[in-house]
Specification:
240 residues; alpha/beta; Ribosomal Protein L25, Chain P; Alpha/beta knot; eight-stranded parallel sheet; five-stranded mixed sheet; 6 helices; elongated; PUA-like_sf; rRNA processing; methyltransferase; rRNA (uridine-N3-)-methyltransferase activity
Length: 240
């Protein structure tokens, strides 16, 4: 397979460009690509460009070729609202959600979130998750990079997204997916932390019009629940 790389900047229409330091290192030191090997670059604008690797010393360059406007975005605009999960679970969730086609990821601090982040630590973790999203786009062929929003409280999220169509995943949710109509706009899917949403959080979500969604009789882990729901929604309304 031809390697795909995200170019941090705007790709010019033609000519030669130096590869960003991280991309150059990955291409030359990790993948050990050789002079003249083909690659594909994308800058997040929806366009991908055929390119050829040029090596000068320790720096990689790309000679740009044909441009392609190729959309691999789902017709279902799905926003994942994910309560913070501990360890490397958030990396996994962001990576797989992007592979499955979500348009945006919004991390929220929930009452029962084990992971607690604020200030500089929160900013660094957000930047890390954004890079995870970029890597997932490189792997999955997406040419538009979903945003990983800054970490926010559930209250702040609800206030900033008033009127959004929301599904909140909850054990015993009153509506199964099969009964729901196709969404007419962006759909926000809300997934709780390891301990689940608290009663007060569920009530706050319901007060904004959120529908409590059930995914069957089994209790799913936070890193499983959202991905299972996304895959089911893509199969029902999207492009899977």
């Amino acid at each position: 397979m031809i390697s795909r790389f995200h170019f941090d900047g705007v790709l010019p229409p033609d000519g030669e460009v130096p590869l960003p330091a991280a991309v150059s290192h990955h291409a030359l030191r990790v993948l050990r690509l050789a002079e003249g090997e083909p690659m594909v670059l994308f800058d997040g604008s929806g366009i991908e460009v055929d390119a050829r690797l040029v090596v000068r010393g320790k720096q990689g360059f790309a000679v740009l070729g044909e441009r392609h406007e190729i959309s691999r975005e789902s017709p279902l605009e799905l926003i994942l609202v994910q309560a913070l999960a501990s360890g490397d679970k958030m990396d996994w969730i962001v990576q797989k959600a992007v592979e499955l086609g979500v348009a945006r990821v919004i991390p929220v601090q929930a009452e029962r979130s084990v992971l607690r982040l604020s200030g500089e630590r929160a900013q660094k973790r957000q930047a890390h998750w954004q890079q995870v999203a970029i890597s997932a786009c490189e792997q999955s062929g997406r040419n538009v990079v979903p945003e990983v929003a800054p970490i926010q409280s559930l209250t702040a999220y609800l206030e900033a997204n008033a009127g959004a169509d929301r599904l909140v995943l909850a054990p015993g949710g009153e509506r199964p997916l099969a009964e729901l109509p196709r969404p007419g706009a962006a759909l926000h899917l809300m997934i709780g932390p390891e301990g689940g949403w608290s009663d007060s959080e569920l009530n706050a979500c319901r007060a904004t019009g959120a529908i409590a969604l059930g995914l069957g009789p089994r209790i799913l882990r936070t890193e499983t629940a959202g991905l299972a729901a996304i895959a089911a929604m893509q199969a029902r309304w999207g492009d899977l």
